[in-house]
Amino acid sequence: MLANRRLLSITKSIIINRSSIIHSSNNFNKWNNSNNSFNFSTTASIQSSNASLNVSPAPQGILHYLTHADLSKQQIYNLITLAIQHKYNVKYLDTKSGQPLLGKTLAIMFSKRSTRTRVATETAVTYLGGQPMFLGSQDIQLGVNESLLDTSKVVSSMVDGMMARVGSHSEIVTLAKYSTVPVINALSDKYHPTQILADLMTMHEIFGPQPKDDSSYVAHLTHPQETLPGLKVAWVGDGNNILHSMLVTFPKIGVHLSVATPKGYSPAEDVVKIAKHEAAKTNTEISFTHDPKVAVNNADVIVTDTWVSMGQESEKAKRLKDFEGYQITSSLAKEGGAKKNWKFLHCLPRKQEEVSDEVFYSPISHVFQEAENRKWTILAVLDALLVKKSFD
Q: Is the pTM above the cut of 0.90?
């Protein structure tokens, strides 16, 4: 009898508690539905049809590296000279960094595959004494099951810097907007700034004073402003993020740029507008054509890139057809009238339809020097953002 009373008491308690939980949950749902500021989305794009989100951007004054359109000529030069000095110090003098980033972490969040950028970044962070934390597409929900806003606020609260390789450029902008730590653009569909720094550093090494042998280095003895202005670069390829980064960078420092893209593959109009504005201030020549031979005329450097980027695989057959005649060859350069001692650059990975073996593996090709310089330029960006906290 006593046991039955206890069982009845326990049953009533469970029913009462369950009723309280349901009542509380219903009250929360009613409150939540009546308060639009708490309608957060967990998708890649923030949905806020009824009211704006009650989320403030990060405080102003945090330094980010998203595009050279944001930097001055002098700031770009500062990054190049810093990269050159690091290369000399580390590779030729075996100078230690003093580990200024000891105890600090850089989150490396890549939604796309990477070889040069990842290796360059991880080794650069390690040299500075920091901890690189690689987060690939299988490791982190970068705008997949969690919004970019949420990812930015969460990750930036735990690390000292973020480097992200994303899809749309708006994604890196969103990460930076809500991040409480510096954000570095490792590649977006619109810009690839660290690659262009490596290109400029390589061009400085090529056209500046030359060392006596491979065991010495002299690039640090001459400022890039003495070697880069006046050079002519010919771009033969797609109107992609590499070209966009060239367009917002080269005119600022007086590097002439001639562009050849197939019809339908021209660079974005807003980027071209920036380039023309900067070119007018520095008296730099920017030209556009659909004829590769016209573009390479009188060129010091000829540059190309992949015709089929990641995410464009379904367009491969069409693109290969559209880019017929755009392969970089010795005959193209000769017939177009490139300078006798012209040089070749490519950001890699390379496919044979883009450039012949004859050019790619020849002495005029500096692609592997260019690839190595990704490390030194990324090291310079990290040093500026996380150690010096200034591009000036």
A: no
